[in-house]
Amino acid sequence: MKIAFVTPWYGPDIPGGMEAETRRTAERLAAAGMEVEVLTTTIRDFFADWARNHHRRRVETINGVTVRRFPVENRDQAAFDAVNWRLMQGLPITATEERTYIEEMIRTPALYAHVRARCQDTLFIFIPYMFATTYFGAQICPAQSVVIPCLHDESYARLAIYRDIFPHVRALIFHTDAERDLANALFPAEPGQERLVLGEGVDTDWIGDAARFRARYDVAGPFVLVVGRKDAGKNTPFLLEMWRRYVAAHGRRLQLVFVGPGEIDVPPAIAGTVRDLGFVPAQDKHDAHAAATVLCQPSLHESFSLAIMDSWVAGRPVLVHGDCAVTREQCLKANGGLYFHDAAEFAGALNYLLAHPNIADRLGRQGRRHVLANYHWDLVVERYRGLVAALAPAG
Q1: Which residue in 77, 286, 330, 335 is deepest, having the highest Cβ count within 10 Å?
Q2: CA–CA separation, 110 and 48 (whole Å)
Q3: Contact 171/391 with Cβ under 8 angstroms?
Q4: Cα distance between residue 119 and residue 145, in whole Å
Q5: What pTM did the predictor assign?
Q6: How deeply is 194 buried, as exposed, middle or buried, from its count of CB atoms within 10 A (0-12, 13-18, 19+)?
Q7: pLDDT tens across 344-375, in order?
């Protein structure tokens, strides 16, 4: 049976966890001999104009995967932005505003027409839950539709419109037990629906060089690494405040090193302790993981976190926010790191890891074993094979 990943944008260099998961999973399944394609729009990426056709409508092959791009149409961006602003502030919205939000997000009727025409021979895998491509696409032939929601505990997840898809598609794929528990609480399943924790594939065949990273970026001494987008959605302002309090109480024992897109507003009092390297090549990021004292993942809204997995592949421990059920669960299952809720716990965890380097190394090794045992690509590919076999029609 043909598999079609349906996602709002797609490309080899687009940043973002969902984007990377879609690309890497499609490529791995295709390389394993499965018939895989991607259905997407002509939008460039998340940060672009969602009514602008950056790519041409066409069929192309990217790293062994057939990619079909469908055009987008004009939308009322002002109306969408007004509703989305309320959601970002955690403010209530009406049923009419929910419709405005989803209908004025992305308009791509040609993509939906293609899905409708291929319902008999294709298993559609929609990722992630919140975009219009999933909302409208997964309702066309729900018996042939699977959703990888990348679900977070956020205001969007509580919109009534998503009850139109979550309980009714053929299957939901989750990264962790905590993510599945949240879905079960918000969207009880209809009879016969599969809800599976398949995890996510993690590249484990790379080696980081700590000394090379330190020499290339002039980083000396112990440091806390942060990898990923830098914005309020990833809790970056909260982390900077924790860091300000740590430096004020404990001095400049550590550096805080950021890698990834976005900008940060560093208070003058801690400017000398914070480095923002921006985008770096993949190997340099691997080297950074190997060199770090600890990786910090402060986000409250994660469904997996490749940054954590990469830290563990490099054998380094992690420090996560205790109010994020997913990352806390990963830490506890792997015994690969610590978690914090406030400035006192943040400081205590950092000082403990500094004072006990052998334990920090042990946590990192335990994390690596957890990744190899659960998220190695060979394991994940076989889980997808089993899913497709189970959902394929008899005969």
Answers
A1: 330
A2: 20
A3: yes
A4: 9
A5: 0.90
A6: middle
A7: 999 999 999 999 999 999 999 999 999 999 99
